[in-house]
Structures are given as C-alpha cells and as structure tokens.
Automatic annotation (TrEMBL), chain A:
It comes from Streptomyces pacificus. InterPro entries: AAA+_ATPase (IPR003593), ABC_Ni/Peptide_Import (IPR050388), ABC_transporter-like_ATP-bd (IPR003439), ABC_transporter-like_CS (IPR017871), Oligopep_ABC_C (IPR013563), P-loop_NTPase (IPR027417). Residues 1-71 are annotated as: Disordered. Residues 18-31 have a biased composition (Basic and acidic residues). The lineage of its organism: Bacteria, Bacillati, Actinomycetota, Actinomycetes, Kitasatosporales. The keyword Transferase does not apply. Keywords: ATP-binding, Cell membrane, Membrane, Nucleotide-binding, Transport. It holds the Pfam family ABC_tran. This is ABC transporter ATP-binding protein. GO terms for biological process: peptide transport. It is found in: Cell membrane. Transmembrane segments: none annotated. GO terms for molecular function: ATP binding; ATP hydrolysis activity.
From TrEMBL, chain B:
Keywords: Cell membrane, Membrane, Transmembrane, Transmembrane helix, Transport. Belongs to the binding-protein-dependent transport system permease family. It comes from Streptomyces pacificus. This is ABC transporter permease. The keyword Transcription regulation does not apply.
TrEMBL record, chain C:
Its main location: membrane. The lineage of its organism: Bacteria, Bacillati, Actinomycetota, Actinomycetes, Kitasatosporales. The chain crosses the membrane at residues 43-64, 114-140, 152-174, 180-199, 238-261, 290-310. GO terms for biological process: transmembrane transport. It is a multi-pass membrane protein. The keyword Cytoplasm does not apply. Residues 110-307 form the ABC transmembrane type-1 domain. It is found in: Cell membrane. InterPro entries: BP-dependent_transpt_permease (IPR050366), MetI-like (IPR000515), MetI-like_sf (IPR035906), OppC_N (IPR025966). This is ABC transporter permease. Keywords: Cell membrane, Membrane, Transmembrane, Transmembrane helix, Transport. GO terms for cellular component: plasma membrane. CDD domains: TM_PBP2 (cd06261). It holds the Pfam family BPD_transp_1.
Length: 385, 362, 320
C-alpha cells in the first residue's frame, strides 16, 4: 500500500453562498498566488470536508484560469480529479505551469485550504486515513510531525518578528514535547544539519538577517524537525538564486535519503524533476495528463503537452539561429474538461475526438506510463530530447 | 550567500557571514530619544511663533483681554506698557519665548492663578479619563477587530464594521449627552457629574482619584471614582474604539493572507500559538501606532466630554476658558498639547522599535 | 472533401467551446472602480443618503410649512419651567425652546449644514492639495533643493497636525470672531495638513514607479511628467479623503457650535447650532436634540459610507 494515495481529488472555489466575493472572484487572475491564500488565508480550524465527487456541479467546472461565464457559475474548479500515489521513501514530482492546480493540490493535502469557500472531493489516504475527511484536530496533529511542507518564498514564509530560534523550537515543543534548553539544543543541531553556520547565533536572529538560501534552509530545518513520513515541497527553489537552488535540492535529497522520508516535489522546473524525482505526474488545468517514471517520461513524452514542454527548453547544442519552440497560447486558452481536452486550443495534434468529453488516462505506449490523450505522440523520432 | 559547507565560522566582527547585524540595545534607544527630542525643538519653536502672532492678532489684543471690552484708552496704554507691548515685535517674541521656556505661562484671567499651576492641578483628571477611554477602546477593539476578521462576512463582522462606521459619525458630545441622559439621569446607575461624589472622604496623593483610593486604602473612594469615570470614558472611547476595530480587522485580514501564517499552520501548531505569535504579533504593529496617535487626539474629545460631565479636568477648564476668552490658558494649553503629542509620538516610535525587529535604531 | 469538412468542423467546435467564456477587457482604473462601486451596498446606501440630503438642502426652504424663524407658538413653550411641546399634528417634530416649528427649521437648516460641509471641505482640499502637490512635486523631481523645500513644508504640516483640531479651530475662531464663516474656515484649515500629506505621500509613491522613470528616460519635461503622469495617478486617495472629510466637517462644525463658536444668528437655522442650543434642554426635551443630532449622524454616515466604498473600489490591492 502506498504511503499517500490520492484518488480523484477535486477542489472547487466559490460557488454557493459567497456573494460578498463574487465580483472579486470573477476578476481573479490566473496566478497561483491569487489562489486560496489570498482569499481568506487558512481558516482558524482548517477543517476539510469531503463533499464527495461533486456530480451536479460538473457543468461549472471551469478552471481557475478561465473567467467564469458572466451569468451563472462563479465556482472555479482549481483541481479536477487528480490521482497519484507516493510510496514510502519515494520522490514524486507534480509538474505543471502556474495555475494548473499543483499548489492547490498540496494545500488540500495539508488541510490548509480555507474552510469556507473551498469544497473538496475525492480521497487522499495517508497511512490508511483519509486526509480530506479528517477532523481539524487530527490533521493539526499530523501537520508538522508526519506531514510537513516547504514553501516557495522563504522570506515571506518566515514570521518577520519572531526569532528563527522560536520558530524552530515551537515545532519541537508542539510535536516532540521538548522544553527549554533541550529544545534549543535540538534546534541548533537541526540548523547545523541543514548547513547553517554558527547555528547558536542564527537562532537569536530574525529572518531578515538571513540570506535567501539560509532562510530556505531554516524552513527545511523546521519541516524535517520531526522526521516526517511525507515532505511536500512546493517549488522550494523558485525564489532562490540559481547557485543556491542546486544546494537546496542537494540538501533535500540528502535529508530524504537519510530518513527515508517520501518527498512530493511540486515544480514547474523540468530540470528539478530530472535531477530528483522517481515518478512524475504532469498536471494541466487541474488534471493529471501524463504519469510515468522519470526516465520513461524524458525518453518518451507521450502527451502533446509534455512533449511541448520538453521541446520548449532551449538547447545549448542547437545550431545558432534555430528558433525556439514554445507551446503557443497561454493557460488561459482552454476549454472545460467536460467538453473535451483542456489543452486542445494550444495543441497541434487536436482532432474532433479531442472535443467530445474528457479523454481517459490510457497506457498507449507501455504499462505504467499513462497519458490522457486521444492522439498521443508515439513516434520516437519526434522526441527532441 | 549561505555557506555550502557545514564548517562553523567563528564569530568575527567584520566577517560577512558572522557580523552581527542586530545592534540595538540601550544606547541605540537613547540615541533615538535624544534625536527625537531635538526634533521637538523646531516644531515647538514654529508653534510658538504661530501662537505669538495669533495673540497679537486677537481682537483688542491682550490688554482688552485682561481689562475687558470697556477699558479706556489710557488704561490700555498703561497695560500695554506694563506688558511691553509697545516694544518691537521681535523683542516681544523673545520675552514670550523666554517665559514659555521657564514654564511661566502667565496667569489665568478666570481664576487669577498661574496657568501652569492650574494645569498641574487638573492634568491628572484628564490623564485618568483619557487612559480609561483608550483602555476601553483597546480592550474591546482589538478582540472585536480580530474576531470580525476571522469571521469575515459573518454577522459579527457586519455588526463590528457598521458599528464602527456609525461610531465615528456620532458627535462625541452628543454621545456623552445620551449616555448621561439614559444611564445617569433616567436609570440612575451612574453619577451625573464630577470625579467624586461630594462628601466622599478622599485623600489626594497623586491626583489620580482611582489610584489615590488604592494607595490610601480608601477603596470606597476608588470605587466612587471608577463609577464617575465609566460614562465619560465610554463616550470618549467611541472614536478610538471605532478606529481600532477597523484597523485591527484590516490588519488581521492582511496578515491572514501572509505566507508565514500558512507556514505556522503547516507546522501543526496549537491554534493559540498561531493566533498569538504569528497573527497578532504582526497584525498589531500598525495598531500600536494608531493607539499612540489616538491617545494624542483624545485630548480634543476630552474638552467636549469633560464639559458634559463637568469632570473637572483640563478639558472642562479649557471649555470655560474658551467662553471667557482666557487667552493665557489657551496658549499654554496649545503648547502643552503639542508637547504631549510629540512625546506620545516618541513613545510610539520607541515601542515600535522594540516590537518590530526590522526597524533599526540608527 | 470529407477531410475538409472534418477540419472545418473541428475548428468550429473548438471556437464554440472556447467562446464560452468572455475575455475580460482591460478596463481603466476609474471605470472599473465605478463598476465595483455600483455593486457595493455601502456605496449605494451612502449615495442615496447624500442625494436625499442634497435634495432637502436645495428645496427644503420651499417645502417648509412654516417660517423657521417665527416664534409662532412662543406662549406654549416655557423653557425655564421645563415645559416643551413635542410632535403633534401641526408641528411634526414639535417646537423648539422659542416656540418655533422644528420640522421647518430642520428642512431649512439642511442647506446651511451642507454649505458648512462643502465649503470647509473645499478650503481643506484646495489649499491642502496645493501644498501637497508643490511638496510632492518638489520631493519627487525637484532635486536637492526640492527635497529641502519638501522638508520645510512637511515640518509645518507636522506642527499643524500636532494641534488637536478643535483647538486649532478655536484659535482661528478667536481671531475671526463668532460666525458661520469662522466655523467653515476653522474646520477647513484643520483639513489642510491632512490633504497635503495625503497627496504628497501618494505622489511620492507614484514618483518611484517605473512609468515615471520611463517617462523621464524618454526626455519628457519634469513639469509635464508631474502634471500628466504623477498627478492623475495620485488623486484617488485625495478624492476618497474629500468625501470622508465632508462627514468630519459636519461633525466638527457641530462640535464647534457646542463650544459656543457657531453661528450666533438665529435667523439662519443650522443643524449643529440647533443641536448645541437644544442640548441645554436635553433632560426635559430630549427629542429636540434628537432631530438635529440624528440628521447630522445620518448625513455624516452617508458621506462616510460612500467614502469607504470608494476607498475599497479604488484600492489597487483589491483589483483583479
């Protein structure tokens, strides 16, 4: 049995009884930042209700990016039936461009979506218990101890007016029952473990006194403080200098290997995926469009989106003057999954079959390599990599 | 640039990795105090010029203020000579300034007593009232603003927001009248005027009636003073309360959207830890500033409230001074208020530099 | 043939599916703010209250059933003995302490109250914006000399802000004597530093924006940048403040009246003056105070609601 088994996860924002925010939701930009955190922040008791797969609301399943129709349905489905699993000690990637629902997925798993305004569907079994159906108290106990998370922007993710030391020790006090000097010593050791020099002094300092890389190290120290079973890393290197990025990834890999922690890596960076992940899930418009082992994915990208993503990376060995191959359009150019493949408007390979209902996940190439496509890329010759 | 290796770098004052950037401590604070006090000087000087010119512009001038409207020419001339008003303006201003520096604010035309003595006598009452009002505003406003933000769109939020909007639209003196009419006159729950019921035996030690009672063991007197404080303090607290509720609410809403609150939640911390350490400690930073500024502006409201309740503080005194055109008192009071205002600002800055580590004391 | 049909139908189908959502057009800040304002309950209530107030202020004197100054029922009211006349058939709001019809006085008084509010707001707005604009322009594009000028101006507004507004008003009233004009000037002058600070701060914030840098790098003259780029983008907080200050002006004017600095001329009723006269009889005739007080509160509330709604509508942080 996998450590984490996510089955048909859906997240819907807005919809019923949120008149006050109606106008605002409609205008929301398709950035991830405009997602749940801006709406209200985590509700005090972040209780998560599993509402079951919301059948009747299917027609309103417009994605976060697309402005909903002017009249009805201001509900926005940010995650639309995502399934994947993470085994013990495995590193799994969740890949997609901004607005595809990958951050919302991670927040839903952590129970950090606002209680009001976000409706969850599906299951997410963690060690046999459904995270989505869990009461606020139980998931609060899990968070930070067995389930930990690292966020994108290390500066804004640290409390600016509380010393680093307090921010590290508070998690030790909460989950490991440590006190006073013992907690402080342990915190210093944690900082040392994540490669922060002179930890005793750093503990007394405030986030603004640390460099970007060190802040992310401090956040990682907090996340691994209780040796979690699953660590979710939401674009942990995006806000950092390129030189620091590699260090942080290296550190993450090391920690995960040492403790046997499973890592769910959320990223838009295929380089990170190539260097770190065992299993890769590619998300587009709130659905998994391709899922496979890392080598297989890079060798044979099967969904046109994945294919396009890999093809759009500029290559150093390409001849001078060769044009770049971007995927045309933006994530705003999409249609509802219920009507067909959301990627169709940007796809060179779409056909009539793509525009009649949601395509199923199939294994067109080989077992264990799934793609959600009617007209998948099968010819090996086309692979640019 | 964090070190990639895990070698400990020993502390060295000029090493970029180990230089302690957090230099604060008593000396920095002292420097801030001195700097702000020096900044006070041009402000007060400018103010004194304005006041001096104002005094000179007054209809009839000081002479008629002292002698009344029906003074004869000869009397006015005599007074003017006695006051040095026949001398050039800058000489007059010099003397005006000298007296202010010596805290010689003149003599009240109402009571015949030195203005400074009158202030010292009445100041504790006003401080007591203002403190009580700001205490009510903080004690009610911050929790209310927090809950309103947490239950955004709920009935409590709607009530708090509309209540605070109405609160700033009610003239303070009218609210005082209503409170007095309903709770003191009609229901008889509270006394209608003054600081202490006549006949209550109270020894004055500090001038603060509530504190005096506690100090001397006359708890009856303390209680009596508290009862006298309730209604005026409530009336006076209306505007600060409204402002604090709205500021706290807005600030908490903003902080709730911050990443570090999400981080705190992701650590599975207890709710009260998230609330106290991560939400409120950040959200209250701007509120602290507001409380300071509001305390300064309370003195304005105190003039109105005190006069409704005949509270016997500076406010009541100013009210009668306005009626009696008691200019020495008004001038003294304005200088006095300006000083208090700047000092409160200084205190706010100090408090801010203590609670927000990002603010450096240079 | 058949291939061509599939291809066109494929494109048609895609077009049909993508057309389901309307693309949001990039509306201007002002138009979008106005659109949001129309959707705001606060704004609508505020606007309705203000509209009603303005209508009463304009046509009130013609609607008034009796003369607001004639002491027609003088004999029925014995203020000294606490005998007052409340609401009744012919006098809807009862009589005041001199036996005048309260309803008529309320209707006529609206005009004076509006006048006090608007004139003092304008004094504050015009002078404050002038000071603020000069200071802001000097600080953003005036070089070192400009910054020094800005320093001096801001120190002066500091001094003004350090004074409790009521006392500043009292001092001004003391020089100018007791009249409605005094009240308007006093209340207006108090607003000057607020407007000045607001506009300057806003201009300073805009001055640091990239589009100003872009304009400068294009070689556009500084005066032109200030007038055509910085100013229009800095005005929204000032407009919000203007609306809000109409509320404070009316309240402050009432407070000044209470302190005995209002209009001494009984021929012209004004809500603030009416309230300050009536409050002396509050214990015996509370309703006499209630009418003007409630009218002042509701009017102030109307301006406050509209101002707050505008603030929200113009807040760039809340823009989509």
């Amino acid at each position: 049995m996998p450590l984490l088994d996510v089955d048909e996860l859906t997240v819907t924002f807005g919809g019923r009884g949120r008149r006050a925010d109606r106008g605002r939701d409609r205008d929301r930009k398709p950035t991830e930042a405009a997602g749940p955190t801006e709406a209200a922040g985590p509700a005090e008791d972040t209780s998560v209700r599993a509402a079951g797969p919301a059948g009747p609301a299917e027609d309103t399943s417009v994605r976060a990016a697309g402005p909903a129709g002017p009249a009805g349905g201001n509900a926005v489905r940010a995650v639309n039936g995502v399934s994947f699993s993470v085994d013990e000690g495995q590193v799994v990637g969740l890949v997609g461009e901004s607005g595809c629902g990958k951050s919302v997925t991670s927040l839903a798993l952590m129970g950090l979506l606002p209680r009001k305004g976000a409706t969850l569907g599906g299951r997410a079994d963690f060690e046999g218990a459904d995270l989505l159906a869990m009461g606020p108290r139980r998931i609060r106990d899990l968070r930070g101890s067995k389930l930990a998370m690292i966020f994108q922007d290390p500066l804004s993710s640290l409390n600016p007016v509380v010393p680093i030391g307090v921010q590290v020790t508070e998690i030790l006090k909460r989950h490991r029952g440590m006190k006073g000097e013992a907690a402080r010593k342990e915190a210093a050791q944690l900082l040392d473990r994540v490669g922060i020099p002179d930890p005793d002094r750093r503990l007394r300092e405030y986030p603004h006194q640390l460099s970007g890389g060190m802040r992310q190290r401090a956040l990682i120290a907090m996340a691994v403080a209780c040796a979690p079973r699953l660590l979710i890393a939401d674009e942990p290197t995006t806000a950092l200098d390129v030189t620091i990025q590699a260090q942080i990834l290296e550190l993450l890999k090391e920690l995960v290997d040492q403790e046997g922690t499973a890592l769910l890596m959320i990223t838009h960076d295929l380089g990170v995926v190539a260097g770190l992940c065992d299993q890769v899930n590619v998300l587009y418009a709130g659905k998994v469009v391709e899922s496979s082992g890392r080598r297989e994915l890079f060798a044979h990208p099967t969904h046109p989106y994945t294919h396009g993503l890999l093809g759009s990376i500029p290559r150093l060995d390409a001849p001078r003057g060769e044009p770049l191959n971007p995927i045309r359009g933006s994530i705003n150019d999409q249609i509802a999954w219920a009507d067909g493949c959301a990627f169709a408007p940007r796809c060179d390979r779409y056909e009539m079959g793509c525009l009649t209902g949601t395509p199923e996940l199939t294994e067109p190439r080989e077992a264990g390599h799934q793609a959600r496509c009617v007209n998948p890329v099968l010819a090996t010759t086309e692979v640019p990599a | 640039m964090a070190g990639r290796t895990r070698i400990r770098i020993p502390y060295h004052p000029y090493h970029p990795y180990s230089y302690n950037t957090r230099k604060k401590g008593a000396r920095g604070v002292l420097r801030l105090v001195v700097r702000r006090l020096l900044q006070l000087i041009p402000t007060l000087l400018g103010l004194s010029v304005l006041l001096f010119l104002w005094l000179n512009r007054l209809p009839g001038g000081p002479a008629s203020a002292i002698l009344g409207e029906r003074a004869t020419e000869a009397e006015v001339a005599r007074i003017n000579r006695a006051l040095g008003l026949d001398q050039p303006l800058h000489v007059q201003y010099g003397r005006f300034l000298k007296r202010i520096v010596e805290l010689d604010l003149g003599t009240s035309t109402q009571t015949g007593q030195p203005v400074w003595d009158e202030f010292v006598l009445r100041f504790p009452a006003t401080v007591e009232l203002s403190l009580a009002a700001i205490l009510i505003a903080v004690a009610v406003g911050i929790p209310l603003g927090y809950l309103a933000a947490r239950r955004r769109g709920g009935w409590l939020d709607v009530a708090a927001v509309s209540g605070s909007l109405v609160g700033i639209c009610i003239p303070v003196f009218f609210l005082a009248l209503i409170l007095k009419g309903v709770f003191a006159v009609n229901l008889g729950l509270f006394p209608t005027f003054g600081r202490l019921t006549t006949g209550v035996d109270a020894t004055s030690v500090t001038g603060f009636a509530v504190l005096d009672g506690v100090l001397t063991g006359e708890f009856d007197a303390s209680w009596d003073a508290v009862m006298h404080l309730v209604l005026p303090a409530l009336a006076l607290s209306s505007i600060p309360l409204a402002v604090i509720v709205r500021m706290t609410r807005a600030s908490v809403l903003e902080v709730l959207g911050e990443d570090y609150v999400r981080t705190a939640e992701s650590k599975g911390l207890e709710r009260r830890t998230v609330r106290g350490r991560h939400i409120l400690r950040n959200a209250l930073l701007p509120v602290v500033t507001a409380v300071g500024l509001l305390t300064g502006s309370l003195l304005s409201g105190a003039v109105l409230t005190e006069s409704v309740f005949s509270f016997g503080g500076i406010g009541s005194f100013i009210r009668t001074a306005i009626d009696a055109r008691d200019y020495p008192v008004l001038v003294g009071f304005i200088m006095f208020i300006a000083m208090v205002y700047v000092l409160i600002n200084l205190l706010v800055d100090l408090a801010y530099s203590v609670i927000d580590p990002r603010v450096r004391v240079h | 043939m058949s291939l061509a049909t599939t291809k066109t139908s494929k494109i048609d189908r895609l077009a049909e599916l993508t057309a389901k959502k309307e693309t949001s057009s990039g509306a201007s800040l002002w138009r979008e703010a106005f659109r949001r304002l129309r959707g705001s309950k606060m704004a609508i209530i505020g606007a309705v209250v203000i509209a009603a107030f303005v209508v009463v202020a304009i046509v009130g004197p013609w609607l008034a059933p009796y003369s607001p100054t004639a002491q027609t029922w003088r004999g029925e009211v014995l203020a000294n003995q606490g005998e007052f006349v409340g609401a009744r058939g012919e006098n809807w709001f009862g009589l005041d302490h001199l036996g005048r019809d309260m309803f008529s006085r309320m209707l006529v008084g609206a005009r004076q109250t509006l006048l006090v509010g608007v004139v003092s707001m304008l004094i504050g707005l015009v002078l404050g914006a002038l000071v603020g604009a000069v200071s802001g322009a000097a600080a953003t594009l005036g070089g070192r000399a400009g910054q020094r000028l800005d320093d001096v101006v801001m120190r002066v507004t500091d001094i003004m802000l350090a004074l409790p507004s009521l006392l500043l008003a009292v001092s001004i009233a003391a020089v100018l004597g007791q009249s409605l004009t005094t009240v308007m000037i006093a209340v207006g002058v108090v607003q000057i530093p607020i407007f000045a600070r607001l506009l300057r701060g806003s201009m300073l914030a805009q001055g640091g924006k990239d589009y100003v840098l872009a304009a400068r790098s294009l070689g556009i003259r500084k005066r032109r940048i200030v007038l055509t780029q910085i100013m229009p983008n800095s005005l929204s907080p000032v407009i919000v403040q203007a609306t809000l200050s109409l509320a404070t002006a009316i309240i402050e004017a009432a407070a000044l009246s209470y302190l005995g600095l209002g209009n001494p001329d009984p021929a012209i009723p004004e809500w603030g003056v009416m309230l300050s006269q009536a409050q002396r009889f509050f214990d015996n005739a509370p309703m006499m105070s209630m009418y003007p007080a409630v009218a002042i509160i509701i009017t102030a509330l109307g301006f406050t609601l509209l101002g707050e709604a505008m603030r929200e509508a113009l807040d760039p942080k809340l823009r989509g």
